[in-house]
UniProtKB/TrEMBL annotation:
<protein>
    <submittedName>
        <fullName>Uncharacterized protein conserved in bacteria</fullName>
    </submittedName>
</protein>
<dbReference type="InterPro" id="IPR010263">
    <property type="entry name" value="T6SS_TssK"/>
</dbReference>
<dbReference type="Pfam" id="PF05936">
    <property type="entry name" value="T6SS_VasE"/>
</dbReference>
């Protein structure tokens, strides 16, 4: 840990905060499992390695886009396609629906809030959702019309 210097606090605070996050995570088990999504062109993919994800978990997306927030809240659920990789490929090619995506008006307290992001939930009651959980991977197709985004 660098020594604190009042003229350059940016040297000490990022490593200090990272250490605090790590220590708190170790001492306070989180009910939130973050899924890292890999981005390639219009497809985002993630692995559902943690067993807790297949045992009655709720799935939420945190999305940031160059599109205005109010427009993203409406258009993202209509245009984004979610499911297993195979299902999303079929859904996009045949213009079908994937897992239903719903905008959230209230973000659950356990989810880290980023003010610039919009939040959505996945409806896991469909066959497409069950297939995604069984396959152990999730895929999201985001058309270019949604703007430059981060999921």
């Amino acid at each position: 840990m660098p020594v604190y210097q009042h003229a350059a606090p940016e040297r000490v605070f990022p490593p200090l905060l990272a250490l605090l996050d790590k220590l708190l995570e170790a001492s306070l088990p989180s009910r939130v499992v973050s899924i890292q999504l890999e981005h390639q062109d219009q497809i985002w993919k993630g692995s559902l390695h943690d067993a807790r994800l297949r045992e009655g978990a709720d799935f939420y997306l945190s999305v940031r886009s160059s599109m205005p927030n109010h427009e993203l809240q409406t258009r993202f659920p209509q245009l984004c396609k979610a499911g297993s990789f195979e299902d999303v490929s079929d859904v996009v090619n045949v213009a079908l629906s994937g897992i239903e995506i719903k905008p959230l008006t209230h973000v659950p307290a356990a989810i880290p809030l980023r003010l610039e992001n919009q939040y959505f939930s996945l409806d896991l009651s469909s066959d497409v959702a069950r297939t995604m959980l069984e396959m152990g991977s999730c895929t999201f197709y985001t058309p270019r019309s949604l703007g430059e985004g981060e999921t």
